[in-house]
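Input set for joint prediction.
Command: fold jointly, output tokens.
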Amino acid sequence: MLEAIGNVSQRWVGSPVERKEDQALLTGQARFIDDLSPIPGIRFAAILRSPHPHARIGRIDLARARDLPGVRGIVTGKDVSDLIGPVPSVVKAPLAYYPIAIDRVRYVGEPVAVVIADTRYIAEDACDLIGVEYEVLPAASDLRSATARDAPVIHERVGSNIISRRSFSYGNPDAAFAVADRVFEFSYSYPRYASTPMETFGVIAQFERAPDRYTVWSNFQGPFVVQPLMASALRVPGHRLRLITPPSSGGSFGIKQAVFSYIVLLAAVSRKTGVPVKWIEDRAEHLTASSASSDRVGTVAAAFTKDGELTGLRFRNTANMGAHVRPPEPASLYRMHAASNGCYKVQNISIDNELVVTNCTPVGLNRGYGGPQFYFALERIMDIAARGLAMDPAELRRRNFISVDAFPYRAPAGAIFDAGDYDAALSELLRIADYDELKRRRDEVRRKGGLFGIGLAAGVEPSGSNMAYVSLAQTAQDRRRADRKSGANASAVVSVDPSGQVTLRLCSTPNGQGHATVAAQIVADALGLHPNDVDVVTEIDTLTSAWSIASGNYSNRFAAIVVDAIAKCAEQVAQKIKLLASDALDAAPEEIELREGYARVRGQSNKGLPFRKAAARAHWDPAGLPDDATPGIHEAAVVSPPVLGAPDDEDRIASAVTFGFVIDLVAVEIDRSTGAIRIDKYVSVHDVGTQLNPKIVEGQVHGGFAHGLGAALFEELVYDERGNFLSGTFADYLCPTAVEVPPVEIGHVETASPVNALGAKGMGDGSSMLTPAVIANAVADALGRDDISLPLNLRRVWALANGHDVRRRPVAAQVRAEGTAVGAGALTGSGEISLSAPVEEVWRRLLDPSELAAIIPGCRGLTQEGPDRYSAEVVIGVAGIRGALGFGSGSGFLSLRPEVGGRTHLQYCYEADIGGKVAAVGQRMLGSVTRYLIAQFFHSLERRLRPMGGSGWRSWWSKLRRYGRNGGEP
Amino acid sequence: MTTLHRAAGERFTLHLTLNGQRRSGEAEPRMLLCDFLRHELQAFGVHVGCEHGVCGACTVLLDGRAVRSCTQYAAQADGADIVTVEGLAEPGTLNEVQRAFAKHHALQCGFCTPGILCSVTHFLRDTPAPDEQQVRDMLSGHICRCTGYAPIVAAVLEAATAIRKGS
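tokens >
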């Protein structure tokens, strides 16, 4: 392939040209999914979601919602169960994933019903009017509770929450550990977070008859291997599910892969309701129920010789899949598998993998996909070992790097590393960082009693995934029974129209990376044009595009594979233009070169034909073409790197086509009194092979770093122990802003990849995989302790720095009432009040349901369920949120004591448990709102007890404020 | 603002100036300004990122001030002069800030960009010679998930210099 395009001039590739995409984006002209109305008559969807982490669905009352003017239809899971089958999975446990709950909800936010109405506002109103009876079940909200002996079983047909176990062994790990001089072990836990693209999911779905066909517009990012799965779930042949992507997509980072379940759902809803439907996810829906990276726990052990040679690695990983295994999961656990040696030459590796379902949102692709979790284990143990061996962590890594002359390098688990010079990259890193000076400063700060730490982390960046790697989740025996899978197709089509204008069509569904710009650079070089002369269409239409199962945007595949298809296809067009020009120029095609918009005879600058005239001949004068030339110019290229074979029976696979290299160093200083981490210096050195556009490469490095920084310091999708979701707003889920992201010094070492025509390696995940590990290493170094977990927020770092217990769960209010058992995560508080009636009267009123209904704030109805047990429907606004948005339960303890003058002194304490949307989006306010409401309750009681003519609202308000102040905040 | 007290479902006509043109459209009292601008007046450059006033993607200029259009009702903008990203430069051209954004690769997916450009416009009018910290403080009202902010900071600083030289 290199030979075939040997005469491509390298003028545009490699230069930092400005992006083709920017003008439209900067002027508001770019079109995203919510800007489109591709067909008339579209109606708008809102999704009613489960407020419970785990419950059986009982009766669903749609009457009130149906009666709302403007409602066109309401569809429940049962209603579409005849149109949707389960989405196929490589995990053979009987999990049956549907995109809407049928009879049981398994996570907060799981779709329960879809309302279609004339406006989104009406559709949301109607959601509030749907009554769903839930039989609440105990929930397992994390890996620990889901794998406990008495854990609630989430999928009864499976019978266990551990749905898959696989063990792998490469080389002879047992022997390596048996003879090791030193063994280091580290138990890790890695949080759940998400890269939260700024544009949320969007779907426009239409069902048509004659032929029966679904057409869906959506900001889906691929991989298009999911298209056959969607068609299968909708029970139609592939071509009857037409997918179209919009011109622009507002970020994805892997997350938008998960929109596929809504494509299936809304397609079925369109069929059921008979209208085209549009659904745009809101941010609360996105944070609650879209997708996330998989949280993981496990151990890593490393065997070393006494002089620092890494001889064995042992991983035990338990990954949280969420409530369902949604394709392409469990790929997150297998993407790094074939490269489990990292960048090291260790040969003996064992891996035990366990997949667990919990009552959390299903996980999926997220920037780095499996890399951040993997490197958190591997690169933490390398720093821990360096300390144990009293070696410099940089030198320990250097000692174990795969050497520069070993490429292409076959890793023990099957990955084939294409090119690299890790040693040179490390040297460049230490040079930029001025490592010796940093170490000197660390000593100086420590002498003064300060906390200063340096961390390192290094790793390979697999790019261009082999579509078969996920089948490692199956045994070799199971794989043999299935159809063989391998490879990663990429396609490109270049057309030159009758006026000589060039259009390239891609199937890489960019979400902001600048594919159109880089693609135009490649085509411009091949055709001797300016990139502005090349139009690039990045929308996919599965009915008309040259797509295949690997199409889409994931695992950095653009620079690893797609560029090869572009270069190949552009070269085919170049050959044709030369052939078309050869007649007119009276020269052999091989003598012609394409430069500056002309076909010219090499060495004769006066003899040329404009590119557009040469191209026009193919359209206007087919009869007059040279014998070898076909009419028109439409050239397609489809490539799949030959190295990406099927997995072998020893579970080895060439999992990706290029393996870039990233090595990061960070120095941090920690403020012991606040827990604040100050990033003193951050350096990141990359080997991305040939930089196709250095401006875009640098942008990807900055962006990947910011994602890694967010994961390291701020971001976590938090569930309480009951499975309630607590991070439903950007005020609860903290993304880094411009004041939190420190400068990064970036360096490059370029070793050209031999696997594509341009020498490029995939890139973009980069530091998102290593930043969490490197910051944890630096914090561990600063604090002198290894029990570091993420995110390293103020609360956690302060506790670590001051020797306090680190609680995993946040608790809104932590006053524990005497004599009560308080569940972790509950809202608790206490207070007291003096009431204007004797004890007997107060007691009577408190036991009278009609009295209670009158004094409970916002009570719409109260029913007694048993002795001392009531259920109430209560309407309360929390932080601007109103409606039937959540549920709560609670219990209280009262102590009544007679006071002089026939009065009663009442002391109370309570414990409340609040879930649903109100917990997800109002978490910060719930403690104070609960205190306020409890105080209001007792005030109402007092008002009803008190003789008429009591104090006015002003004193009521001041009393209330006093109850509030006394109400239990620590 | 009597329009706010009308019943839900009732629509009323409101008039405003959008990017220099007199426009009118219908809205319910509860309709958010961002939804009105997008779906009634087709100003699709207004992007909605969070609907709770944190991410800043929906920022527009309302009577010259950068405001979140997701935390205002359309009715509150009756009679206002609104500029969205579509109105920051003459059609077919880029202004200094937009040019600097392109040059410094200060946008990738571009979804947050319209709101940032509106904030920068207001900011540079009040703070024509900002330092980096001031720029970062201003940007902290916006979430960008693609760029890591460094290129945006560089672009704003360069645009400030260009505008000072030009005026």
